Amino acid sequence: MTRQPSRLWLWCAAAALVSGLLGCDTDSGPAGPAGGRPVVAVIPKGTTHEFWKSVHAGAAKAGQEFNAEIIWQGPLKEDDRASQINTVENFITRRVSGIVLAPLDETALVAPVSSAVRSGTPVVIIDSGLKTEDYVSFVATDNFKGGQMAGERLAESLGGKGRVVLLRYAVGSASTDQREAGFLDAIKRHPGITVVSQNQYGGATRESAIRVSENLLSTLRDPNSSSGLSVDGIFCPNESTTFGMLKVLTDLGAAGKLKFVGFDAAPDLVSALKEGRIDALVVQNPFNMGYLGVKCMVQKLRGEDVPKRIDTGATLVTQHNMTDPQVSELLNPDLKKWLKE
After folding, report:
1. What backbone phi and psi angles, to 5 degrees, belong to 13?
2. In sequence order, what are the residues at sequence separation of 6 or more whose Cβ sits closer than 8 angstroms to the Cβ of residue 222?
3. What Cα–Cα distance (Å) separates residue 255 from each residue in 157, 208, 233, 262, 306?
């Protein structure tokens, strides 16, 4: 007669099987059980600029408020398209609840975003646009308007006449492309202003922006002008290009002797504004961008309606308004409260 297994043995075997199933695929990461805490991957363009630290802090705050686990991961530098694409694909495989993405290329990230959506992973786009509508919401500055603000400020500072330079950021970056276009749109309304250079790209790092700025300004020397340069004004459309140009102008002794408008609010740029080495900064609200990006994702996961486009705003900051309470908060966000640094 064949002996039947005991009930205790069957129970233990079943428990072991369930335990094994639950423990498998440990690299996939938690996606959150149905109705449980959602896991939201936030993928910036890069992780070195001060701008992205503010985005991270805003995302962390939203994670706490809306009971979502936030995974922050992105390329080190803002020119590593392959790394960002791989990051998106990895999070699709890990079956996170949703992805909040700042695409560093408006074309290259279309396919991975579409792949995420097809797999059932919703995507919210922040900061920079994408050549598709295959996303939940686009949360960003009105970058064209921000560029216009910079152009009008520079034109006003120059009295509507003079020679100006636009140092661009990088090919394929939708946010800065729009700022540059907005700047040129504003400048063309002032026929007394000539754009003498607009085809140079500073690149994704401060180091590359310094090199390009040095080369550019070396072609514009004029020992007879007060600044030593044959230009009256300069615009740079992001943190790295603004810093690179500032460093070179300072080294040449030209900072503060011509009109210089930049973008974003890293501490060293804010100090330069206070000292008069920068004439004005167009400042975004990256903290709010990170916060609203995560908020929109959680709302989507809860089945709530989400706006397709959210403008997080931009502010023109000068020496005259930089101490205003609301402006000061933009310039000096409390990141330590939300980031473990």
Report:
1. -65, -45
2. 228, 229, 230
3. 15, 19, 11, 13, 45
Q: Which residue has the tokens 């102008």?
A: 249
Q: Cα(270)–Cα(329) distance, rounded to whole angstroms?
A: 12
Mean pLDDT of the chain: 91
pLDDT at 17: 37
Task: Quote the tokens at residue 153.
Answer: 């400020």
Element (H, E) at 139: strand 138-140
pTM of the model: 0.86
pLDDT of residue 35: 54
As given in the structure block, the two tokens for residue 102 are 């700042």
Q: Can you list the domains of the chain with their CATH numbers? A: 29-140+286-312 (3.40.50.2300), 143-283 (3.40.50.2300)
> Percent of the chain, pLDDT > 70?
89
The dihedral formed by the CA atoms of 105, 108, 113 and 115, expressed in degrees to the nearest 10: -170
One-letter amino acid for residue 178 of the chain:
Q
Q: What is the DSSP string of 192-257?
A: TEEEEEEEEE--SSHHHHHHHHHHHHHTTB-TTSSSSBS-SEEE--SHHHHHHHHHHHHHHT-TTT
Distance, in Å, from the CA atom of 184 to the CA atom of 178, rounded to the nearest integer, reads 10
